[in-house]
Amino acid sequence: MNLSPDWCEVLRRHGWHAVHWSEVGSPTAPDKEVMSYARQNDCIVFTHDLDFSAILAVTQASAPSIIQVRARDTLSPQFRSLLVDGLRQFEAQLKSGAIVVLDQSRARPNGPTPGKTGC
Q: Which of 33, 50, 51, 89 is a good FRET partner for 112, with 20 to 30 A between their CA atoms?
């Protein structure tokens, strides 16, 4: 809910299936519900909220993968390119369970998801 639904169209244009939480769940749903949906539907959580990475770490779950945004202007053309490049670069790790951090200028793995190999 903390990133624009416009991202879905950006991701779809590049060949990925994307759904905004507002299309499938309640805007007031707890983060655990979002995580459960993502895990059950083999989704990657793309978020600006640090809570999702924390939930993954605390629960030692192996899924879902998280793309953690650490930038302010998330809809700029430069950030869009960074995301697309990061998804391509870390695609294998994201499929197997990982946390990838995107900041203003780069994408980097933030270590493997607990219980998984990867980044």
A: 33
Pairing of strands 98-103, 107-112: antiparallel
- The pLDDT score that the predictor gives to residue 73 is 81
DSSP string over 6-57: HHHHHHHHTT-----HHHHS-TT--HHHHHHHHHHTT--EEES-THHHHHHH
Contact 108, 101 (CB under 8 A): yes
At 111, give phi and psi (nearest 5°).
Answer: 90, 160
Helix (H, G, I), strand (E, B) or coil at 77: helix
Name the maximum alpha-carbon separation found in the chain: 35
Confidence (pLDDT) at 119: 32
Residue 118, pLDDT above cutoff 60:
no
Nearest by Cα to 16 from 37, 44, 48, 36: 44
